[in-house]
Design a protein that fits this description.
It contains 17 helices and 13 strands. By secondary structure, it is α/β, with parallel strands linked by helices. It has two domains: 183 residues, MOFRL domain (glycerate kinase, domain 1); 215 residues, Rossmann fold (3-Layer(aba) Sandwich), CATH 3.40.50. α1 packs across α12.
């Protein structure tokens, strides 16, 4: 296949790039190659995050001995056959909430803490970690409630704060995050196999770091909350103001532990770039660290796209701009459907205003972009025309946080279903002015 010369070919090419990215983000092959040596004692598994069911099932199939453990299962990924397979392997699944923790999230965390607390020096705790674990695995500190954490989580998600800032606050209010799980397991050895969904692949940020110590302080959490104007329940503020500084990475509980990264966002981008080259399109990798407001980022990338289309700078078309990271939307007032990726797509369509030969898609690689069933959306030179024909005001939809609803009206929401992985956002913008 060579460079596309029609809308149909452009859409097919972008779909091929997305398929390549998701295949590269599959944690199962890397997990099978990274199995630790069996311990002399017990093997306990705690699988946390959106990829937890698939990772736990793959590990159980490959492990030579008996297992026991806890697996968080996102509510939209509760496949009955997989749940039965997990139970047959000795693992207990817990249906849990995301992006706001629920009673299942709390039950999973307390079950894992109880399991870890019963391990000895000859035992192994294997933590299978992936994005989404901060909500799916939640144990509030003594003195605050799950309801407090739910209220705070909703406020933080609506504030536009970055995920590293949100998770810093979460770590200060959790018995399991920021190394809490590993401390409970001491003196057992803890091995973590992780899939990164965060900018920088920082261990403390992925699922809020249940097996790593950090130098975060309550004062830093209060600074984040103040910066974004988040109102705290009184008992949460009192807890943060009176909490001691947590242990640092020199804590003896972590001396025997190991942490390995299985899959990262750049793996998905490199795979998409390789597929683009194979299909005759030059990839321009913008990196996996784009953060900030989805609408503002769309305007910025639209400027780069216009330079490529008009002047061949910084790359000659046909070309595809590939990027990852995690964009945000600050919510205010009425909220419709969609999330940062659909907001990005609709804002990009508005910024490009029908510029010829430009097609794009943006998805959350876990298969869920904010609210609604979609993973993200797509746009092309006729997106705004189709919206007008359906009576949809694109600018009003964007301002009302209903980009998902607008794109759904013209069939441009992308639905992948739960993917079993999570390496954050994936964006591809194809520039083919000859189309």
């Amino acid at each position: 296949m060579t460079a596309p010369h029609s809308d149909a070919n452009a859409g097919a090419l972008l779909n091929r790039l997305l398929d390549a990215a998701l295949a590269a983000a599959d944690p199962v092959p890397a997990l099978r190659a990274a199995l630790p040596a069996p311990p002399r004692g017990r093997t306990a598994v705690v699988a946390i995050g959106k990829a937890a069911p698939r990772m736990a099932a793959a590990f159980a199939a490959a492990w030579p001995g008996p297992l026991e453990g806890v697996v968080t299962v996102p509510g939209d990924a509760a496949d009955p056959d997989m749940l039965d397979a997990l139970r047959a392997s000795g693992l207990t699944p817990f249906a849990a909430g995301h992006p706001v923790p629920d009673a299942g999230s709390e039950a999973a965390a307390h079950a894992a803490l109880a399991l870890a607390g019963g391990l000895g020096a000859d035992d192994l705790l294997l933590c299978l970690l992936s994005g989404g674990g901060s909500a799916l695995f939640a144990a509030p500190l003594e003195g605050i409630t799950l309801d407090d954490k739910q209220v705070l989580t909703r406020a933080l998600l609506a504030s536009g704060a970055r995920i590293d800032e949100i998770n810093l606050v979460r770590r200060q209010l959790s018995a399991v995050k920021g190394g809490g799980l590993a401390r409970a397991a001491h003196p057992a050895r803890v091995v973590t196999l992780a899939v990164s969904d965060v900018v920088g692949d920082t261990p403390a940020v992925i699922a809020s770091g249940p097996t790593v110590a950090t130098g975060d302080t309550p004062a830093e959490a209060l600074d984040v909350l103040g910066r974004y104007g988040v109102t705290l329940p009184t008992r949460v503020r009192r807890l943060l103001e009176s909490a001691p500084v947590p242990p640092t990475a020199s804590d003896d509980a972590f001396a025997r532990d190991a942490w390995h990264l299985l899959v990262r966002p750049m793996d998905a981008l490199h795979a998409a770039a390789a597929e683009a080259r194979r299909l005759g399109v030059t990839p321009l990798l913008l990196g996996d660290a784009l953060e900030g407001d989805a609408r503002a980022t769309a305007v910025t990338l639209a400027g780069i796209v216009r330079a490529v289309a008009r002047d061949g700078v910084p790359v000659e078309p046909p070309a595809v701009l590939l990027s990852g990271g995690e964009l945000t939307v600050r919510l205010d007032g009425q909220v419709g459907t969609g999330g940062p990726n659909t907001a990005f797509v609709l804002a990009l369509a508005l910024a490009l205003d029908g510029a010829p030969g430009i097609h794009a898609l943006a998805v959350d690689t876990d298969g869920l972009d904010g609210s609604g069933p979609g993973a993200g959306g797509r746009c092309d030179p006729l997106t705004l025309v189709r919206l007008r024909k359906r009576g949809v005001d694109a600018r009003a939809a964007l301002a009302g946080h209903d980009a998902g609803g607008a794109l759904a009206a013209i069939g441009d929401v992308i639905e992948t279903g739960p993917t079993g992985t999570n390496v954050n956002d994936f964006r591809a913008i194809l520039v083919n002015p000859r189309g």
